[in-house]
Design goal:
54% helix, two-stranded antiparallel sheet, elongated, alpha+beta, 4 strands, Arc Repressor Mutant, subunit A, homodimer
Chain lengths: 121, 121
């Protein structure tokens, strides 16, 4: 039964520094992929981003935090790998924790809303 | 000191029914303005929306719920007023409650992130 799955409540969290998004769903997914793959280009491919786009997202994050979230390992821009700094790992975890807690916090009211939505099929 | 205000964490909640947004920040703001003004066109003006756009948002909400969130009072489409049904008022309140609870739930992790952001000025 696909009935229930069509009704959904999404929470999207964005960390803003002035007019820049320091962290959001896309950036955190990128951090996690960099952690897994050890490479910006591999992470970009996995997420369907251009290398340039992924690099820009990393650059925005790095510039908005006190210290870098992602650093390059030896080998130059594309050749070398990349890794999350301890701060990068900490920020990704804190962001995911916010998502989980927010989702939990809305459940009671979401159930109230869900009951009043048309049950599509 | 504008320092702190530039660092912000926004939570945006969307209620989806299939590929339609049944409730989101814009729709709930519209519900609240309709409640205040008793009119879709006044609410639209207040929110900087065209009448057509506001009407479409109301129509989407009405179609996605078991019963209408907004009804027109006598006088025809533009002439007459509009009002929130009890269900409309209940859904707007439940949505705002989700926002408040989500925001509260993320505070600890948000403070962790905030401390690591560059303090802009």
């Amino acid at each position: 039964m696909a009935t229930k799955e069509k009704l959904n409540c999404l929470t999207r969290i964005r960390v803003l520094s002035g007019d820049q998004i320091a962290l959001g769903p896309g950036k955190v997914a990128l951090l996690e992929e960099i952690e897994r793959s050890g490479s910006i280009s591999k992470a970009a491919r996995k997420l369907g981003l251009s290398y340039r786009r992924a690099w820009t997202l990393v650059d925005t994050m790095n510039k908005n935090f006190e210290s870098y979230l992602v650093k390059g390992s030896a080998g130059g821009k594309r050749g070398g790998g990349a890794y999350l700094t301890p701060l990068g790992a900490k920020m990704a975890k804190a962001y995911r924790a916010m998502e989980i807690k927010a989702e939990k916090a809305i459940q009671v009211n979401w159930k109230t809303i869900k009951r009043s939505l048309k049950q599509t099929d």
